Amino acid sequence: MIQDDVIWMLVGFILTLLVFSYLFGDNILFRLAVYVFVGVSSGYVVVLLVDQVLIPRLVTPLIQGSSSQRLLLVVPLVLSILLMTKLFPRLAAFGNLSLGVMVGIGAAVIVGGALQGTLASQIMAAVTDFDLQAGVLKGRDPVLKLIEALILLVGTISTLVYFQFGAATKPNQPPRRPRWIELLAGIGQMFIGITLGALFAGVFAAALTALIDRLDFITLVIYDFLF
Amino acid sequence: MAENRCPMCGKSNPEEAQRCVFCQAQLKPLAGGEEPQQPSFSFSSSDESEWLKSLRHAVGEEPSFSEETGQEEPDWLARIRQRAQTERQSTDGDKNQLSSWLSDTGGESSAAGEEDWLNQLRAVTSVSQETTEEPLLPSQEERRMTTGELRDVRDRLSRIAGEPVDLSAGVSPAPQPSETVPSSAEAEQPPQAPSGETSDLTEWLRSLEYTGVEQSSEEAKFSIPLEESTELPYSGLAEFTGESELGGGPPEGEQPDWLRAFEEAPTAAETPSAPMSGEETPDWLKAFEEAPSVEEAPSTTEPASAPVSDEETPDWLLELAQTFVPETPGDQTSPFVARVSPFAEEIPPQVEQPKEVTASALQPAAQPEPTAEAALARDVDLTDWLAELEGEAIDKEAISKAFILEEEQPPSEELPAASYPFAGIDADLLGAVEAEASKEGGLEGLAPALLPDWLQALRPVEAVLGETPAASEEELQVERAGPLAGLRGVLPADRLVIQYRKPPIYSIKLRVTEKQQRHIEALSDLIKAEGKPADIKRENLQAPRRLLRLTLALILVLVLLIPLLVSSPSLTPTGLVPGEEVRSFYSQMSLMVPDRPLLVAVDYDAGYLGEMRFAATGVIENLMLKRQRLALVSTVPSGPLLANDLLERAQLKLTQVEPAIRQGYALPDRTVTLGYLPGGITSLQEFATFPRRAVFAGLGNVAGEPQNVWGHVVVQDVHRLSDFAGLLLITDRVDTARAWIEQVEPALERRPFLVITSAQVAPMLTPYVDSGQIEAMIWGISGGMAYEQLAGVPPHAAAYWNAYRYGMYVGFAFILSGVLLRSITVAFSRRRKPNEA
């Protein structure tokens, strides 16, 4: 076991250095590491799907299940086979049924969840922010809370207006949005910029953390091998 | 017998002939010093024209001018009569003989050659009048035919009326147009002396041939003055009629009434012409008279007061001579003179040589219209005899018009003779033909046919359209030169030019609006830009990118390594103040019931393992210290493995602090990995409703055997999500978090929903925290370290906090320096461009 850990540690160390070689530009070492990663990931996924999905959910019930289970499993079995026809251009049309089922069910779930879980709740949350009494109960300054609520409301509306590109056309004039829409879109553009900046900072932080972890790993391996 | 083709007329001639029998053109070229032979014409009995034969047969005896007029018969006339008698006697027995003129052609060289050629000339001219067809134009041919037809008509009328047909008066059947061989013998035969009735016929016939063309002084040169032409060619008609004098016709009163009707109406130009002044031409015949558009020569205008010319020259010849007028604008040329022209070199001195033909000679002359009185008189006479014959109403106008040739001659312009193709060859003939065509006789043009309405409707469109631009007969121009001279309505090139209008000019410029023009310009700019190569900015050699990148990387690595190498991981991070969100998370974790398992969703990728490890390890250690049962599930394929790794790391760390934790918190007993949820968001929907059906495989036991995860002690009492103590979601993606929030959070039934996420996702999930859908959330290494500090677990991220903090400072410095440098560069570049400009 320790030897396995050492081996895998060395493998990790090498792969880490291969990835760090990208500092010198795209090279074969980096590509080797990428190829290894893609290959291992793909293999692992295949094994996982076979072990976690196909065998326990399809093969075993078809073999050991009751007649009713088998009858129900015929539908996913046929759909799975039809979906595999997508690999062949001549037979790709047969896989449209399975693909349609997947897309339809997924769209329904996503739309329902978005409406109920995000849209409605976020709208309620935006309205609830103007409940100054609740803020007082929570120990917050009502003025500040009101300001926050207003900023939140203006930011939300201006961001939504920024993505509205409909404009009335006039003869011999380029299409332009009304002035008040242009003003709100400008404010929304500012909020969007701030949001993207925050996201960039988070990405940098996450990447920096990952770099720290790898550097720590390297030092640890060097320390273990040397000392 | 070999034939010899005439180069001019193309007709066959005997081999021995020197001149063409028909047109008298030279067949054989003359040698040096050789004089052209005089044309010798002799008619054989076989070559007689039928009309001449019939005439002779009808006459029966030789005409004798001397018997009628009592004047001396010229020698040449006597010779002609003698010869005619001789030939008549030998006609029966010698029909197959060659023409005597053929045998006499080569060897005749008698002293009477001069007279012979005159006789021959007269014979030829007389025959050519009747038989020559090619040089004549349809108008003249029509006139000639009309003359013959007139004779036929006259014969028929006389028969109808019961009058004996006196052919000796000179009436003969219509000459055959195809007959080309001149019967010189016949021409030389003097006609028998006509009787009294025949004299009438000769008179009207003479009047018929009298064109009454006026001659101008200029054209007089082309005419044969009667007083000068003492010896004129044989006038066959006059001889046949027994008259040797040219001049007036039968005295008045002797002509029958019906014949008077056909007398030519004397025109204004004809009136001064003496020979015809005392005659009454039939009305119907007047229509065929040539228009007296040319004034007669003063010599010819004298009435029969030129005894010398009347005595010597036949009347018909004089008449024809008078009708021929040299060309001047508005004048005409007689066909007689045109026929004489080929023999110009043989014309006796008495005959004036015609001068060179000018263009005006080829153009028709203006024709005076027939007078109304003459037309009326003609109509009256004409209609009377017709009414007697048929006994029914006759349209006088139609009848009169039928015999009237309306010939309008458009004004002509003098053109050079060289412009006409045949000006030098048959100019006189053409001019004479044109003169006849342009004459206005007593005949009016035919009235256009009136089509009924129903017939007009059936006409094709092309015919209707063709009528519109087509000129009427009156407007048709007569060709004056060329092979089509005399024809009407041919080659109206000038009229075609007039007919065609200038086509309308349509603007080819497109109507383009300003908007379209702008679109066009934009599209053209795009197309042009596609073809243009993009400008490649030259790379700044002062700061190569690779070197800069390595330098920055080296700085950052050093900044991170130094704290890692120098700082101790167990140090408490300084300057780290847990925030409100961390406190809330900690309080939620504290309220969690330990009897119930906690559902932990591990949905982050291996790439963010370091950050998530820093953020979640402290929480897991706290849960382990609390002896909380954990059920792990994942929607990511690598989630179960990462979950196991997270549990092992946490336990390993706790063992360092609390060695008994390994025995107190056995992972196989206190935790269970439910497995992988396939299908993404749809599996979450199923897991939220039927968790046991959604996931059941697990990762197997240590031996790799499959296990029934829901039989595990940790989750054996769990049937729905609300049976869990709460949900702890560890994820690095917004979509995964949103899916768990939207699909699973409603099924928790107010169980705490806690989230551990990455620093890059935290801003996106904060609204869900504010809305209450997420109870608490910590993110990144800072959140993890803050929680470790609150929970009192061994610090794991403290050593890394310094590296993280210094790294953030360096990163901020890099970004700030880059922005400043870029701003300065842009500012300087803008200043350079205006200066350079």
Write out key terms for the chains shown.
heterodimer; A: 227 residues; mainly alpha; 2 domains; B: 837 residues; six-stranded parallel β-sheet; two-stranded antiparallel ribbon; 35 helices; 5% strand
Structure description:
The complex is a heterodimer of chains A (227) and B (837). Chain A has 2 domains: 1-72, no CATH class; 129-227, no CATH class. With 227 residues, chain A is mostly helical. Chain A is extended and about 65 Å long. Chain A has helices at 2-20, 28-64, 67-84, 96-128, 132-137, 142-162, 179-226. Helices cover 80% and strands 0% of the residues of chain A. The model of chain A has no long low-confidence stretch (mean pLDDT 89). In chain A, helix 3 packs across helix 4. Chain B has 837 residues and is mainly alpha-helical. Chain B is built from 35 helices and 8 strands. In chain B, strands 5-4-3-6-7-8 form a 6-stranded parallel β-sheet, with helices on both faces. A two-stranded antiparallel ribbon of chain B has the order 1-2. In chain B, helix 26 (609-625) links the parallel strand 3 (598-603) and strand 4. In chain B, helix 25 packs across helix 34 and helix 26 (609-625) packs across helix 27. The radius of gyration of chain B is 68 Å and the shape is rod-shaped. About 25% of the residues of chain B have low confidence. The interface between A and B is large, with 49 and 62 residues.
